[in-house]
Design brief:
Largest sheet: 6 strands, antiparallel
Number of strands: 6
Strand content: 15-25%
Number of helices: 5
Length: 171
């Protein structure tokens, strides 16, 4: 279970709805399970910073969840990925990056252009999970994803087609 990536959506949240609309994703947030004993803890880019929280935060009826379990990776690979993402603990959340996604997504949708997110600093959930994946397997298909524009949907699509990740509906 350690190293499993979770995707979720808070059903009645304005912010969640806006993220899903702009990214054209079913998911508005993503996290990775860091520890499973004695309690399940997840590493996430939360409201204010990268932090470790109990998974119970996402187990209420307010959330829809799906998980991708890493099958076929060694425990040392998973540990390496978690360490790379864990280096970001206490990094502030990238609220300005969220706002910066607006011109990025509009340029892509309306003009077919790819531009970088003009807002730097901080970290968002998709970027944190990309850090984990690059630590897990630097040569994986996520290598082509841009940390400044990656969305939960981008990660979901890559993991859905990756042979070493198994989609599961519950833990």
């Amino acid at each position: 279970m350690t190293g499993t990536i979770g995707f979720c959506t808070k059903r009645r949240s304005f912010v969640s709805k806006m993220i899903r609309w702009f990214t054209r994703s079913k998911w508005s947030h993503t996290y990775v399970i860091r520890q499973n004993e004695p309690d399940i803890l997840v590493l996430e880019a939360g409201m204010f910073q990268v932090q470790i929280v109990p998974i119970t935060k996402y187990e209420s009826r307010k959330y829809s969840n799906v998980f991708f379990r890493p099958d076929g990776f060694s425990q040392s690979d998973i540990t390496c990925g978690l360490m790379k993402a864990g280096d970001k603990i206490e990094t502030r959340y990238g609220w300005l990056q969220i706002l910066g996604f607006i011109p990025v997504i509009m340029a892509k949708r309306l003009l077919g252009m790819k531009i970088s997110n003009p807002s730097k600093g901080g970290i968002v959930c998709s970027e944190l999970i990309l850090q984990y994946l690059r630590g897990l397997d630097p040569s994986g298909p996520w290598g082509s994803l841009d940390r400044n524009t990656v969305s939960p949907e981008d990660l979901y699509e890559v993991l859905s087609s990756h042979a070493k990740f198994k989609k599961v509906e519950s833990l």
